[in-house]
Inverse folding.
C-alpha cells in the first residue's frame, strides 16, 4: 500500500537562513518557491536526487520545536550518503557542528547527526 515517503515538511524560524542551508549547503534543488500573501509566509519545495522532497515553510511566530531531551513526535530526518566521512568533512568546512561518527550496532553502517539552523536533528546514514 505505502510505497515511499514523498516529502517531509519543515517549519523554520528564519526563511532565508534555512533556504540557504538546505539549498547552498546541503545542495537540494529548488522545485518551486511560493510566497503566500494571505499567510505572510513562504513555501519552498526542495528535491533530493532520488525524487524525495522537503517542503520548507515559514510561519510568523511559530513555536520552537522541543527536541532535547527526546520529545514525542518526529525524532529526526535521515539522509543516505555514500560516505559519512566525506560529508562530515564538507559540513565541518562550512562551520556546521557534527556529532562523532558512530556505527549502527544492527546494520554495521556508519551514521552521525547534525542540526539545521533551527536545531532540527538531521542524520547522515551510509549507503
Amino acid at each position: 500500500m505505502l510505497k515511499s515517503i514523498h516529502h517531509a515538511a519543515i517549519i523554520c524560524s528564519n526563511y532565508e537562513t534555512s533556504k540557504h542551508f538546505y539549498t547552498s549547503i546541503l545542495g537540494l534543488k529548488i522545485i518551486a518557491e511560493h510566497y503566500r500573501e494571505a499567510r505572510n509566509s513562504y513555501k519552498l519545495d526542495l528535491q533530493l536526487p532520488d525524487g524525495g522532497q522537503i517542503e520548507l515553510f515559514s510561519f510568523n511566530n511559530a513555536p520552537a520545536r522541543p527536541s532535547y531531551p527526546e520529545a514525542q513526535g518526529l525524532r529526526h530526518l535521515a539522509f543516505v550518503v555514500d560516505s559519512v566521512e566525506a560529508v562530515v568533512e564538507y559540513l565541518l568546512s562550512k562551520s556546521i557542528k557534527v556529532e562523532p561518527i558512530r556505527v549502527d550496532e544492527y546494520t554495521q553502517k556508519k551514521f552521525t547527526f547534525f542540526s539545521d539552523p533551527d536545531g532540527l536533528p538531521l542524520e547522515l546514514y551510509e549507503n
User: Anything to note?
Assistant: Residues 30 and 46 are 5 Å apart (CA to CA). Strands lie at 7-12, 29-36, 41-47, 53-58, 77-81, 102-103, 110-115, 121-126. The radius of gyration is 15 Å. The longest helix spans residues 15-25.
